[in-house]
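How a chain folds remains the central question behind the approach discussed here. This step matters because it turns folding into a mapping between discrete strings. The sequence in question and its structure tokens are set out directly beneath this paragraph.
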Amino acid sequence: MKRYGLLSVLAALVLTACGNGSVKSPDFEPQLLNLAVTPASQSVGTGETRQFTAMGTFSVQPGAPADTPHDITDSVSWSSSDPSVASIDSKTGVATGVGQGTTTITASRDGINATATLTGEGIVLRSITVTPPQGATTVGGTPVQYVAQGVYSNSPTPQDITDAVISWTIADTTIGSIAPSTGKTVKVTGLRSGLTTVTASAKGIDGTAQFGVGQLTSVAISPKTASSPLGRAFQFQAIGTYSLQTGSSQTFTLPIPASWTAVNATGNTGDAPTLDTACDGQTSTSCKVTGHSQGDVDIKATVVDGAAGTFTDTAVLTVTEPVLDSVQITPDPIDVSPRTTPDNVDLPLGASQDFFPLYYYTDAPGVPVVAPRTAADKVVWSTSDATTVGITAKADNSITATAKKQGTANVVATAGSISDSVAVKVGPAAITQLLSVRPAKAYVGVGRQVEFTAVGLYSTGETKDIADGGVTWSSSDPSIASIDATTGVATAGANASATGVTITATLNSDTTQHATATLIVTPEACATPLLAADGATATEGPAVGVCLLCGVTGADNVIDADLASVGVITVGVGALNASRSIDVTAAASGAPYAVPFAAGSRPAFIIANANGPLVLAEVASQIQLSTLLNGAVQESTDNPVTPLRLDLLGAELISLNKTQGLVSFATSLPYDGVRIQLKSGLATALSTVEVGAACGTSLLPVQPASGISSLETAGVASTDEPSIEVGASLTLVAHDFTDPSQSLNSDDVSWTSGNTALATVSPTGVVTGVGAGEVVITGTLKNTSACGTHCSASRTIKVSSAICEVPLQMSQGATVDSLFSGLCLLCSTSNLNNVIDAQPQTYGQVYLPVGLLNAAVTVTATAKPPYAPFTAGPTTGFVVASENGALLTAEIGNQIVVRTLSGGTPTGDASNTAATPLRLDLLGTSLTGALGTTAQPLFISTTKSFDAVQITFNSGLATALSSYRLYAACGKGPQ
């Protein structure tokens, strides 16, 4: 139901008060209020139908008269509680009796239900027929034989009555007598002249026939004259006239059995007429005569009565030229024999079917012709619902019917008063062609699973994935890898195979159509698992940030050799700067490997997302791996130089079908331990990670690509030219050609720089600025077997001069420290050494909650001789970014102070003085991919020499700044 805002309600009230009380909202949608089914109860015999009607009452516009119930039968959904008693058409409300019992009929719409009761009577006798319908005899003459049969609810054809005794009566027992009085067949004998009624009764139902006793006086054919087209039969009837007694003027008439003949009249020399089998060579009360040449046919009926003698009469049938007798619709073209004329045709959505007319003329019964004999006989086509089945006329008077939406529509061909129709039922779209299997080539580790998907062309013209059950899957060698025949989930065996197997999909609706793919079974990605059995240990790593819902459970499960049991890291979404981690340390001795692991090795963890699939962007931004040596961090994936890599491994057989991933990175230093850290993200990001195993070393799974569509800056959604400053770095990511939304792992790409004097590029796609200018970086797939003409792509990088001409560097003895002042319980700093690590893209972090009285955080970077002191004159300061957006002058004027010191004492140069105002430079996109678009230099001009630069962050209002990144401290900044 729609909701309306306060302004809409107020406007409606004003309009009601000012106008005629009626308010029409353009967004108003009537809602069903009440629903009823009529009749409330009824009964039905097996095979019979009963119509139910749904009556609905709807809401109205404010001020409009209340709605009255009206028929909505076709817009509700119908159901029967017991289909063995009665079924019901879900759209029309027509119920059909099936058996005995009681069922509840329900109409449903918009969550509202209404019911009625339907009683099934089973197979029920509905009527009795007596044959012949009329009979006559003379007093004491041959008795008339009557036969009674019943018409039951399940069939219109009369059948013997076996579930009841038939009783016979005669209305006037003085005219005739019945023997026997019960049974299927009786004989009635004439006692005196007259006309009366014979009745057969069973189960309260009667069937009647006429019985007359008299003297036959004449016979007449009715009608005396008639005309019929050549080839069309015409029925004549013999009527006997009886007198109630000899010489009496009182008479009655009844149809009488007669012998029939038909001959061409004089002058009609064509083919002789024919009689139908009911009267040809035997007596019958009626006779159908068919003329086969134009002209008159003489008809004669003869009755021989033993008491009254022989009676004859004649009639004339005039045979006219042949005419169109019927038309039929066929879906078969003219070259198909025999051509079918179905009552119903099923079409999948979007499909088309040609229909052709067949013309039948009276002079050639059962022999169709494809073209009408006259223009007046030509059919006109129509459809009962053009929105369901549309028709398009063709030059040969055929049509093409197109299935537009699911449902049923009648296609009708009409010629004058003659017509034929075919019901076209439109079902779901069907697969017309099996196109391919995705992925065309897959790699999966031993014991793991990967799912294949068949792609088909549908009757709607769409190309889309085929649902389970649409194809049957098979493997060329199940010992290497098997596949579920229905789902397409392939399972690798216990041994790697470089040649792999061929996976085949066979279209179930057309088993001649096949599509194939290749599956290669690779060794286990975790080459050196760190296990407790070998002496490895697992502990919870350092906790970062305040986070009530954060934690680590089951750390020992990471090293228990069972991928189904996992360690779990949980970090609540939105927890600022919070993270939790697991540390795994290799055994110092006694293990089947040597420690420390050599530089260049690739440590890894096997992980899964507890709440869904692993998404590369989330993993890259929230999961950080580090190597440890004797407990100290060696390298981490928090910078572009050692980026994190995610490889999806497929589902592990015993891990509840969760897709696992291998997160790893290339090292440049030796290590004896590894750490996995989960950082807090946004509400849509990772909040829980399951860690199944830790790997001292790993083998990268093969990740084939269809090609490279483009090179993009990691973490930046922009088509702008990426830029970095000299000394800074950014990471380029190659995107798959077939699916540009998918990022390719950089290790699968060879990288080159067009000018190494301007920028270098690492084997993992990390671009580092060397000199100012523009440089072209090219990425080329290492495996070019399947990429065709799309094996490489290029991107232009702009390198600008460094912001800090003279950065303070730890390698030159510089130090950095922090100081908290005021009531600042939740204030914090982290990674401050990144401010002086000479890497422009790394940063330290400062957190200062808003609204704290007189609270402040101060960070001081100090240089040592011979690099200090710095002479007066140049600018100095920090490169700063806010996690809440770009820094604004109005905010930083009150909240951020930059000053210089000498020997630990302020020099007097400070941004909170009129003589030394703070300089704010917006960098724009100059550092996109390195620092981000919110990074800015906050500098002051100096009038005195100094050896330290200091920045103080004061707590502001709730709308102001609270979290900062410090990228660099500059002894000499932009001039």
The first helix runs from residue 6 to 18. Residues 1-26, 652-656, 922-930 have pLDDT under 50 and may be disordered. The radius of gyration is 48 Å.
